[in-house]
Amino acid sequence: MSYERESGGEMEGEELAFCNASGRLLVKSLDKERSFAEAVDDFRRLEEEFVVRGCDSDFHVLETRRRIAELILTLAQSKRPPLEVCREAWEDIVRLGFSGREREYTMTWFFADCCRYDENPEEGLAVLLPLVAELERGLEEARATQSDTDFYEYHLEPLLKQRDELLAQQRGEQIPGKRTRRIDEARDSDPDEDGTP
Amino acid sequence: MVAMRVPRVRTFLSFGLLGCASLALLPLGCGAKITYPEASEGPRVPDATAERLRECVDAFVGDLPRVQFTFDVVLTVDEDGHVEGVKSKGVPHEELAICMRIALRNMTVPEQLLRLSKVRVSASPAPANGQAAAERALVGNPGLLVAVAITLADLIIEAGPVVIVIAASVELGKSDIAKRYRQKEDDPCQEPLNDCLDSARQSKQGSYWRHSICVACHARCKRNGEWPDKIMMSKWETCK
């Protein structure tokens, strides 16, 4: 089931208040001095405030919780807590369900990137490959019927790139320009202190 | 900041105590096993982390050049208990050192240690009446809160002839390491997000309820590494 609506209209009232508050909180949370745990606490407080404000149905409450869960996974991908923490954020989204296909493609990429960073390609590929297959099938069908292919191409691009990186990682190859926890670990340590007899 | 350095004497003490070590926690069939010196006191490395350290030793034991060594490690932990930095020395094998640092980086700091961080201690590293900083913390020293440094019980991993003593300490509180860890390369999506939130686009509906175009542009930026000109929603929407 998709909860998609027409984009581009003007928001107002409590919906605008939520988007303003959550957007500002995202910026604040991305600050390097703000820890992931602090950011999650902030977002949970915002969630509790807005599941009351402007929500007059279960659907509104669910969608508010989904938006918060999506922002927390976005932060996990940026702030790189341990993979277990990122996985919890992902499982929270899965539990709440996706509002639409676009949401699933986007959030799956974020979790797969957590897996790539922690060099766990199998787990990332397990969530990514079914979506790639689905989009590739849709693309083939759209081409066969001479329909618009934009939707499939647009969403395939980042997922294919992520898939190729995870496959390369699975083969034990380094991915140029991509950080991993191991690289960051090695960089954070004083090079003079380890590897010496 | 308390400059915590694990005294060398711990190493000798640990090897001495090893002779009477009797508590084999994980005598698995895959070689390495974990023990603690019988007389060890204080908090220990959590079992899950100890197991991951053991796996590291198992993976590289065949490459190690000498029989006994001590892995001195100082963990820097933030106020929420997350390990933010791992400084280590003494492992004569780079891959093993990395493996062990990753295991320690993922450690969940025991709650008993987090509780200690709430106690004020002196910033001075000098012992007072023979007490270490952590011991003073336990009796409520009213000095300035800078950090708390706590020595964990030595963890000994034996794998055939190889014996590794892991002498770990935890520093609680903000530190240079923690700050450095946070100072990763600039995020190309952060400033454009801020600009978007300041613009008229912020009030534009995204494709879902309580979903804004600015946040959707940010998500696309994270995936593509640069702020997009436009994004696909129910129709193309501009991000700039």
* Record field, number of beta strands of chain B: 9
Indicate the percent of residues in helices of chain A: over 70%
Q: Overall pLDDT of chain B, averaged? A: 70
Strand content of chain B: 15-25%
User: Could you say how many structural domains of chain A there are in total?
Assistant: 2
Number of helices of chain B: 8
End-to-end Cα distance of chain A, whole Å, is 60 Å
Order of helices and strands of chain B: HEEHEEHHHEEEHHHEE
Structural category of chain A: mainly alpha
- What is the average of the pLDDT values of chain A? 92
Described by strand count, sense and barrel closure, the largest sheet of chain B is:
7 strands, mixed
- Gross morphology of chain B: elongated
**Helical residue percent band of chain B:** 25-40%
How many helices of chain A? 8
Count of separate structural domains of chain B: 2
Rg of chain B over CA atoms, rounded to whole Å, is 24 Å
- Topology of chain A as a string of helices (H) and strands (E): HHHHHHHH
Over the alpha carbons, how many angstroms does the gyration radius of chain A reach?
Answer: 19 Å
Percent of residues of chain A in beta strands?
A: under 5%
Biggest chain pair contact, residues each?
A: A-B, 68 and 57 residues
